[in-house]
Amino acid sequence: MKAMVSAWLVLVMVPGAAVAQGRDLCAHRPGLGTPACTVDPGHVLIETGVADWTRADSGDGRIDTIQIGSTLARFGVDDATELELGWTPYGDQRERTATGDVAHMSRVGDVTVGMKRSIVNPDGHGLSFAVLPLVTLPVGRTPIGAGDWGAGLTAPLTYDLSNSVQLEFTPEVDAAVDEDGQGHHLAYSAVVGAEWDVVETVELIGEVQAIRDRDPGGRATMYLAGLSAAWQPGKRWQFDIGTAAGLNHDAPTVRVYGGIAALF
Predict the structure, then answer these.
(1) C-alpha–C-alpha distance, residues 102 and 92, integer Å
(2) Could you read off the pLDDT tens digit of each residue along the chain, which spans 264 residues?
(3) In this structure, how many other beta carbons lie within 10 angstroms of the beta carbon of residue 238?
(4) Which DSSP string do the residues of 59-105 spell out, in sequence order?
(5) Domains of the chain: which residue ranges?
(6) DSSP state for residue 22 in the 8-state scheme
(7) Which single residue of 23, 35, 76, 109 has CA 20 to 30 Å from 179?
(8) With contact defined as beta carbons under 8 Å apart, do 168 and 190 qualify?
(9) CA–CA separation, 10 vs 235, rounded Å?
């Protein structure tokens, strides 16, 4: 954690990190979906989840998962392309069974590598569309890591309904790792939502998500609803909080998170 804080301070102090005036800060955080915009060439957008807690209740017990410091670095390559690198340095899972037994594990997470390519309007205004292929490298261990490589494709689409309201649609398909870590299966999802600029520096995001996971160990369909807020005190910084709630039995019960993003 000290190393992460030091890295943030170094980046803030780097000279010549002026922000291009032609494109707004467009973070992946917060929310369930993914924006279609890309980072300006020559700039880096760092997004860090300070804390992320999820609780999943079932008839067999309860699982609490906490992730600290999950970070995504997005590098602008050209006007329509960015490279992405993500990692979760620490995760903790606590499982309590119906009989009262408790299992506790702390792990590092996996590394994700991706490239987002804008097809229309990389600044995210008007009708904006992009494709984002991702690969997950099994650096971490279960239950925080997946235990094997994975791959996926996201195709985010956004549309400005007005100067203050933007609609979003994020479909995704994945070659997900089996629960036992011994193979792969098809998983797919979609997020539909809307962003509302309450004032120039504050936005609210409401979303719903459907996930279909065809794990051979047990297929599941999950429905979630999310509400989040972001505050941008300047053109380079964003702070956010958010929550999501499961709408059916298969979905996690509740999630609460908060984080920060900075453009350099």
Answers:
(1) 13
(2) 444 444 444 444 443 333 445 578 999 999 999 999 999 999 999 999 999 999 999 878 899 999 999 999 999 999 999 999 999 999 999 999 888 889 999 999 999 999 999 999 999 999 999 999 999 999 988 889 988 999 999 999 999 999 999 999 999 999 999 988 889 999 999 999 999 999 999 999 999 999 999 999 889 999 999 999 999 999 999 999 999 999 999 999 999 999 999 999
(3) 24
(4) TTEEEEEEEEEEEEEEEEEETTEEEEEEE--EEEEEEEETTS-EEEE
(5) 2-14+25-263
(6) T
(7) 35
(8) no
(9) 19
- Give, in words, the CATH class of 2-14+25-263: mainly beta
Buried b or exposed e, range 71-95, using 16+ CB within 10 angstroms = bbbbbbeeebbbebebbbbbbbbeb
Q: Which residues pair with 17 in a beta bridge?
A: none
- Report which secondary-structure segment, H or E, holds 191: strand 184-199
DSSP state of 176: E
Q: Tokens in use for 219?
A: 């297929």
Amino acid identity, position 77: V
**Judging by DSSP bridges, how do beta strands 111-120 and 102-107 pair with one another?**
unpaired
What is the reported pTM?
Answer: 0.87
